[in-house]
Amino acid sequence: MIMKKISLLAVAFALVGLGAQAQGNAANTTQAVQQTTPQGQQNKQKITLEELPEAVKTAVTGGEYKEWTVGEVHKLQPAEAGAAAIYEVQLLNKEQEQPVVVRYDEAGNVVQG
Description:
Blueprint: H1 2-36, E1 41-47, H2 54-62, E2 69-78, E3 86-92, E4 100-104, E5 110-111
Antiparallel strand pairs: 1-2, 2-3, 3-4, 4-5
């Protein structure tokens, strides 16, 4: 009888430990996502290729990545009032398994970050 109670307690502690570890992993994943977001960018809105400014469309379809396939496109609104939006374009070529994400300013220039 005592052994059953000890066994049940051991199982309970193991389950609590696994739950805490899962929560820790979720927190680490959230931190990793937040770190990859450019500073000052808070509002990420999914848009279509057609909704991009003309300069950005020209840069995507006629520049270095003209042979690549366009995936998701996002408009990143800055937190600061008056700051320009950044356009994030996901691109994939035949040799790449992982998409490449390129960020452009409204003039079609590639931006870092």
